[in-house]
Design a protein that fits this description.
By secondary structure, the protein is an alpha/beta fold. Helix content is 44%, strand content 13%. The chain has three domains: 257 residues, Rossmann fold (3-Layer(aba) Sandwich), CATH 3.40.50; 130 residues, Anticodon-binding domain of a subclass of class I aminoacyl-tRNA synthetases (Four Helix Bundle (Hemerythrin (Met), subunit A), Up-down Bundle), CATH 1.20.120.640; 46 residues, no CATH class.
Length: 452
């Protein structure tokens, strides 16, 4: 399932690890300059599922996921809003982890911040210059990609096919680069921009230098797995790997990239219209588990479209599983070993969560039939459903009855939406959420459920 220059290792649990029984994972984290979007949510859920499954298999996982807290976009927003750049990063990081908590994503074991590792980045860049792999210009310091023999191996492109500038900003000294694909390791700061000292002049690290330093510092040479979205394969991951190669240090042994979230359906996004482009709006509109359910039913490598129909389908699937949890609460027993073996086989085959979800639904049907028949096998089937859901981070919740007051507010919310009185609809939604209800927008109208 892990792609190393397109060489696939299908058996997840038999992945060749640097240290048997232990797996070090580096996941590229957020640049904290704005709210998380649906693509962020997909990446964190995909690798949360991977982590949970490996831990369920008995593997000791160490997950490192960074925070990029210095970047052009952070500086641009701070200047635009006339705020301190630290105010932007602290607020956005808080929003990020609140959203991840609502999604049920486990917190990483290590959360390095780029600003904490600037000294190590300066040392790395100095080493690259000493090795003849980097050079200074009037704008900063660049890696000379022609000094990296296999540059482009991860991106599956030759050097001549590399994009000009390596994905960096338009810079004053770009015409001084020795090759169009050379990328910035260090950027000299403009007046009033945040900066750190270096032998070449005050500035800040380039984005591609941050992750290579933090991953090697915390996980060591030749760590097991590097993860991120498919959009990071080039230039970011390719440029990370290039720096490690130029340093003469073994980098990630395996790579894993999840697919894109493609354009959503429908009209302009509004909380009350029920279509979303922003992760925070999705979390406000729906049971957060619905997004995990949707992604579990999509292979991690495939693109996924997030729209009303598939979110509604996920909500309905959750309702069915929650109803099963309520019905079977008194008959749960030790898990059926044969069902768990099927689950392992599916997950070990390129993390095949769609087939694993199919197995869950099949087992629910078998368990319901066994409960109806008074069959002694029911408890083991119920146990298997709960254990597999737990290994995927999908918590089942017994449904609660909706009281008359909440029903009336939900009806009023639907009436307000129909009248396009979105201010009233959003106010009613906020009241219901404050009362502890999950407020889900479906084609049939507002649905309410509790999670506790």
């Amino acid at each position: 399932m892990f792609a190393l220059y397109d060489t696939l290792t299908r058996e997840v649990r038999t992945l060749q690890m640097r240290e048997p029984g232990k797996l070090g994972i580096y996941l590229c984290g957020p640049t904290v300059y704005g709210p998380p979007h649906l693509g962020h949510g997909r990446a964190t859920i995909v690798y949360d599922i991977l982590r949970r499954y490996l831990e369920w298999c008995g593997i000791d996982v160490r997950l490192v996921s960074n925070i990029t807290d210095i970047d052009d976009r952070i500086i641009d927003r701070a200047n635009r809003e006339q705020r301190k750049w630290q105010d932007i990063t602290h607020k956005c990081e808080s929003v990020w982890f609140d959203a991840m908590g609502r999604l049920g994503v486990q917190r990483p074991d290590d959360i390095p911040h780029a600003t904490e590792y600037v000294d190590q980045m300066v040392q790395m860049i100095a080493t690259l210059i000493d090795r003849g792999a980097a050079y200074a210009t009037s704008d900063g310091v660049y890696l000379e990609v022609q000094k990296v023999p296999d540059y482009g191996a991860l991106a599956h492109q030759s050097l001549d096919e590399m994009l000009a500038g390596g994905g960096d900003r338009e810079v004053l000294g770009a015409q001084e680069k020795r090759h169009p694909a050379d990328f910035a390791l260090w950027k000299f700061s403009k007046p009033d921009e945040p900066s750190w000292p270096s032998p070449w002049g005050a500035g800040r690290p380039g984005w591609h230098s941050e992750c290579v330093v933090m991953s090697l510092e915390l996980l060591g040479d030749g760590f097991d797995l590097h993860c991120g979205g498919a959009d990071l394969r080039f230039p970011h991951h390719e440029n990370e790997r290039a720096q490690a190669v130029a340093l003469g240090r073994p980098f990630a042994r395996h790579w894993m990239h999840n697919g894109f979230v493609v354009d959503v359906e429908g009209e302009k996004m509004s909380k009350s219209l029920g279509n979303v482009t922003n992760l925070l709006d999705l979390l406000d509109l729906y049971d957060p588990r619905a997004y995990r359910m949707l992604l579990l039913q999509t292979h991690y490598r495939s693109p996924v479209k997030v729209g009303q129909d598939n979110i509604d389908a996920s909500v309905n699937a959750l309702a069915g599983l929650d109803a099963f949890a309520a019905r079977s609460a008194g008959v749960r027993a030790a898990s059926d070993h044969a069902v768990l073996a099927q689950f392992r086989a599916l997950m070990d085959n390129d993390l095949d969560t769609p087939q694993a979800m199919g197995l869950i639904f099949d087992t629910v049907r078998q368990a319901n039939g066994a409960i109806d028949a008074g069959d002694a096998t029911a408890g083991a089937l119920v146990g298997a459903v709960h254990e597999i859901c737990g290994a995927l981070g999908l918590t089942l919740v017994a449904a609660s009855e909706v009281d008359a007051t909440a029903q009336a507010k939900a009806a009023a919310l639907d009436a307000a939406r129909a009248a396009k009185d979105f201010a009233t609809a959003d106010a009613l939604r906020a009241e219901l959420q404050a009362d502890g209800w999950l407020v889900e927008t479906t084609k049939q109208g507002t649905a309410l459920r509790r999670t506790t």
